[in-house]
Amino acid sequence: MKFQNLLRRAACFLSMLSLAMPASAAELLPLTQAWQFRLSPASSKAATHAAATAWRPAQVPGTVHTDLLAAQLIPDPFFGAPEAALQWIGLADWEYRTRFDVPRAQLAQVRQELVFEGLDTFAEVQLNGRSLLRADNAFRRWRLPVEKGLLRASGNELSIVFRSPINKLLPQVQAMPVKLAGNYPSPYGDEPPDAMTGNFVRKPGYHYGWDWGPRYVTAGISQPVTLRSWSGLRIESLQLLQDEVTAERARLRAIATLELARAGHYQLRLWQTGPDGRRQLAAEQRGQAAEAGLQKIEMPLQVEQPRRWFPNGYGEQALYRYELEVLQAGRRVDALSQRTGLRSVVLKREPDAQGRGFHFEVNGIPVFAKGANSIPFDMFQPRVSAAQLRRVMQSARDANMNMIRSWGGGYYESEAFFDLADELGLMIWQDFMFGGGMQPAYDPAFRASVVVEAREQVQRLRHHPSLVLWCGNNEQEIAWKYWGHGRDMKAADPALAERVWQGYVQLFGRDLRQVVAEEGGGIAYWSSSPGDDLAEVANTPASGDMHYWEVWGNPAHPVSKYLEITPRFMSEYGLQAWPVQATVDAFAPRSEQAIHAPLITAHQKFMAGQGNERLLKYIREEFGEPRDFGDFIYRSQLMQAEGIQLAALHHRASRPFTMGSLYWQLNDVWPGASWSSIDHVGRWKALHFQARRFFAPVAVAALREASGQTRLHVINDRTEAHRGELRLRVMTLQGRTLREERQALTLAPLSSQLLTRYADADLLGDADPASAVAVFELQAEGEPPSRSVVYFKPAKDLAWPQGSAVQAQVERVGGELQLHVQARNLARGVWIDFEGLDVDVADNALTLLPGESLRLKLKLSGNGKATVEDLQRALRLRVLGSAAL
Q1: Which of 37, 61, 238, 248 has its CB surrounded by the most CB atoms within 10 Å?
Q2: Which residues contact 502 (CB under 8 A, 6 or more apart)?
Q3: Per DSSP, what are the bridge partners of residue 840?
Q4: Is 490 exposed, middle or buried (0-12, 13-18, 19+ CB in 10 A)?
Q5: DSSP designation for 529
Q6: For the CA atoms of the chain, what is the radius of gyration?
Q7: What pLDDT digit, counting tens, does each position of 354-383 carry?
Q8: CA-to-CA distance for 752 and 656, rounded, in angstroms?
């Protein structure tokens, strides 16, 4: 009995000692150096690509394609037309390895774990010959506990084998009597067109090819790798719940999740650094854990008169930083820092006589969403640079955008992307990574993997104030209901069709909704875009969000059809255009540039390479036949810019029934024809210059319908009323004024006002519709002027005056390079370029009235140098109705 008492006392003493012992700080060892890769000698492709079976240096994070390119084993995947010849890469298995040492102090820690932030995709991981993982989801983070004794102080070997996702999945897909619908069948024979594997794997869908990008089914260590070691406790996560945010106060709850390796006391301190840089203690709490494991601690805090975060155009983007530190015995053992913005955001779905509304309310303000859809910024995500992201995101803000929809066929964007969105006031509509077709959501294991992925991603991104919506998928519901996917499967196998649909409802109607409700901090969830959150009818103007592709897509209506479709929220619509000449020159020699040239069609992915025919249809309808390929590029951009302007202004003019206009698409994954307004290099197309005008907070919209009726609207997105003057001039193309009117008006806040309607005859009188235009100009106090020009004939049928419409002279004014542009006659679609020089022009794709002149700032990109004379010689102007100058 005495012996047992002694044992109890000893155990109690040891327990108390353990509670008092301070833990060592967590240690992180990055494992991104000294990696090598090779084509697996056992792979079916080894015999035909023997040179790739030797070990060579690899970049981590990276991809197989970029490693092969760096090793000069493949040509540049973007230059020329190498796509077909590179499909073997996606059919091969690849091996990666590195060796590393571990400092003895780190090796002595109680817990060791390897953390892979991303593995793409079927990856078999070994450490010192011991199998640790068979990964199968590129969107997950993998934490692998390392058993005591497995790690050594020196000479540890970490190896990974990546299996071909096509070869791994193809047998099971081919064995299905009735196949699930995929997205884009491969034209290269690497998988059968009736057995597409992409929807069966949690991997970026665009790797398998899309109608704006190539097919490169890559693999690799896509995110950093770290050895994390710790003994006492570590911070697993910090959630900042914003229970109430008003101008008077913000009530928050900080929820810290700690992981403890053993029992112990600890102290939490939460520090707040405000937008003004002042740091103060926001909350403090002591805690005790009786055993190892996870523990959650909640700390309330309040901010008086908070500086709130607003979308671009509505206020400042004030950001607070919160740093959580954990102390044991007065020693800091771990810390975690998060930046956030204080704001309230609600998705409003108010019913009315037509259906239900759809708009975002931020800090009590109903915000009209203006923006575009983003796709991945490169075919090979690890090489996307911070400068590349900033250029595109800043360009979105500069074009008066306030929202980007991050589309679901790529990958969840980086912290850098969301940090920029926070700083620039760009609200993010975030899709989960489902880009189209139909997934095997009837499989519980597949759903379980997606739920883990979703929980990790929601937890990772929830502190960003820019994040305003999680959406389940892109276009899968309407594909099932209206594109024949559901109909065809019901006809072939009704029981399977029911399983597929019920699996869909479970995953997108329940599972992901529950994850967002539990982890998202109050952000709304939307099951599919376009949709009405699983209502019977989807993609309807009456309720929910809408994608409209009957202009450009089948049946390819004329752009005037945009004026007949008035949605609640237009989340996709678009027209294609080619990038600027300099971007095309980077992948195709001038001698191989022609509308139907093989190298050009290789960079045109719509209609399996025949998309230029659709482009020509729209170009010919308005602008006539292009003279050459350069003129084809120019006219494609004008067609895109003017068509999207018509749609976007119609959406804005339809406020408050319509409360969002997001065109497809913002950016590119590679150089080629697409719907983007910014090309892969970061150069603006005509559309982006036009977007800066048609998304301006205060604008005039004169919208001429196919019937010859013109609706005149004035739009004010500001939260305060504006006084202004509206001016109407009807004039000839040479500049003779036929009619002029001025009207003083007050623009109500957050509004669109229909001022009047005109028949053509009301504006023209007896004037020749081929020789006259109506010009509406709005000048509001404190706002840039807004102009809307109404044409009464297609551009190809206008009686353009003979001779040059514009003159331009490069000048140096006070040390600044400027271009002085003067219009003799009406100059529509003025495009300014500098042959062989990369010059940023302050504005472009201009329409100048007769006699109008302006000065545009010129800036040489990078470290480029050129004299005034160099720029003048390189200057090229294109204007509708005139030959290129």
Answers
A1: 37
A2: 442
A3: 859
A4: middle
A5: B
A6: 30
A7: 999 999 999 999 999 999 999 999 999 999
A8: 8
Q: For 64-73, which contacts have Cβ atoms below 8 Å and span 24 or more sequence positions?
A: 64/37, 64/89, 64/94, 64/162, 64/218, 64/219, 64/220, 65/89, 65/216, 65/218, 65/379, 65/380, 66/220, 66/380, 66/382, 66/383, 67/37, 67/220, 73/49
Beta bridge partners of 431: 471
Q: What are phi and psi of 837, to 5 degrees?
A: -120, 140
φ/ψ of 32, rounded to 5, equals -115, 5
Residue type, 554: N
- Are 279 and 273 within 8 A, CB to CB? yes
SS3 465: coil
Identify residue 430 by its one-letter amino acid code: Q
Cα end-to-end distance, the chain, whole Å: 106
| Helix (H/G/I), strand (E/B), else coil: 96 | strand
Contact (Cβ atoms closer than 8 angstroms) between residue 586 and residue 608:
no
Supply 471's token pair: 């959406």
- Residues constituting the chain: 885
The answer to whether the CB of 827 falls within 8 A of the CB of 805 is: yes
234 with 26: CB under 8 angstroms?
yes
**Cα torsion angle, 254, 258, 263, 264, sign:** negative
Half-sphere exposure of 87 (CA within 13 A, CB side): 16
Please state the φ and ψ torsions of residue 546, each to the nearest 5 degrees.
Answer: -140, 140
Q: Report in angstroms the alpha-carbon separations of 659 from 311, 360, 703.
A: 15, 8, 18
Torsion of CA 472, 475, 476, 479, to 10 degrees: 160
Query: What is the rounded CA–CA span in Å between residue 501 and residue 454?
Result: 20
Neighbour-count burial of 391, counting CB atoms closer than 10 A to its CB (0-12 exposed, 13-18 middle, 19+ buried): middle
Q: CA-CA-CA-CA torsion for 795, 798, 799, 802, nearest 10 degrees? A: -10
Return d(Cα 59, Cα 220) in angstroms, integer: 9
* 187 upstream amide cis, omega within 30 of 0: no
Structure tokens at 829: 């679609």
Q: Which helix (H) or strand (E) holds 642?
A: helix 629-653
Q: What CA–CA distances, in Å, run from 650 to 425, 560, 666?
A: 24, 10, 19
- How many other CB atoms sit within 10 Å of the CB of residue 729? 18
| Maximum separation of any 2 CA atoms in the chain, in Å | 118
Spatial contact of 637 and 845, defined as CB atoms under 8 Å apart: yes
The distance from CA 87 to its chain's CA centroid, rounded to whole angstroms, is 26
Reported as a pLDDT band with limits 50, 70 and 90, residue 789 is: very high
Q: Which residues contact 242 (CB under 8 A, 6 or more apart)?
A: 250, 251, 252, 342, 343, 344, 521, 522
Start-end of H helices in 728-808: 760-764
Give the whole-angstrom CA distance, residue 882 versus residue 80: 32
For the chain, give percent helix, strand, coil, nearest 5.
Answer: 25, 35, 40
Is residue 181 within 8 A of residue 479, CB to CB? The reply is yes
Whole-angstrom CA distances from 559 to 288, 545, 713 are: 66, 20, 19
By C-alpha distance, which of 362, 363, 367, 391 is closest to 378?
A: 391
Q: What is residue 228's predicted lDDT score, i.e. its pLDDT?
A: 97
Judged against a pLDDT cut of 90, whether residue 617 lies above it is answered with: yes
Cα separation, 367 vs 315, whole angstroms: 12
The answer to whether residues 779 and 724 touch, using CB atoms and an 8 Å cutoff, is yes
The mean per-residue pLDDT over the stretch 480-503 comes to: 97
Under DSSP, is residue 476 helix (H, G, I), strand (E, B) or coil?
helix
Please determine, for residue 234, whether its predicted confidence score (pLDDT) is greater than 90: yes
Pairing mode, if any, of strands 249-260 and 279-289? Answer: unpaired
For residue 12, the model assigns a pLDDT of: 40
369 close to 400: Cβ distance less than 8 angstroms? no
